[in-house]
Amino acid sequence: MTVSVMIVDDHPMWRDGVARDLSEHGFDVRATAGDVDSAVRVTTTVTPDVVLMDLNLGEQSGVDAIRSITGQLEGTRVLVLSASGEHADVLEAVKAGASGYLVKSASVTELVDAVRRTADGDPVFTAGLAGMVLGEYRRMAETPSGGDPPPQLTQREQDVLRFVAKGLTARQIADRLVISHRTVENHVQSTLRKLQLHNRVELARYAIEHGLDQEQE
């Protein structure tokens, strides 16, 4: 299946270059945009599988666009492609709903792989950033916030959730549990619906905050 993409960046030459690279690798680049308002408006019209989002959009922040897009389009995932690798920027983007974060120094091969994996639902981060995000969630979880108990999950859903919280991809989880990749995806989607979450990054955060990332005795 061809993955559809929208590219949001305020530098036209960079935007066009990324669009060309992705098109040459078989992606359906449906549209591009250079500011927050256009990004949100056009994305809701063309409904791509993945939005490749820069954070620095002139005087505006891509975080606002991420929040609006993920709030309106359940089936569209946002992958940040930014010049900044600052931890604060990464966490802000993830908290807004981004599924992953790639720095602009990534090669075309890395970018192509990241977009494909994002479309598959995997959280994708430049090396070192995934551990930082999960580490921050674990730090936040040291002070329990209480609240309602988690909805009832099956044992297999809990198994999958535990590995999601450890940062494993769907294929790695399938290998660990000796089940198919599609079965993993089904469990992830079922768990997302039960917990009313949007993506694997939110799942990982939920699991850590509720202590569901730990091995069962």
Automatic annotation (TrEMBL):
GO MF assignments: DNA binding
SUPFAM superfamilies attached to this UniProt entry: C-terminal effector domain of the bipartite response regulators, CheY-like
Residues bearing the modification 4-aspartylphosphate: 54
Pfam families found in the cross-reference section: GerE, Response_reg
CDD domains xrefs: LuxR_C_like (cd06170), REC_NarL-like (cd17535)
GO BP term (any one): phosphorelay signal transduction system
Residues of the Response regulatory domain: 4-119
Domain HTH luxR-type as annotated: residue spans: 146-211
Keywords: DNA-binding, Phosphoprotein
Regions annotated as coiled coil: none
Protein name (Swiss-Prot/TrEMBL): DNA-binding NarL/FixJ family response regulator
Organism: Prauserella isguenensis
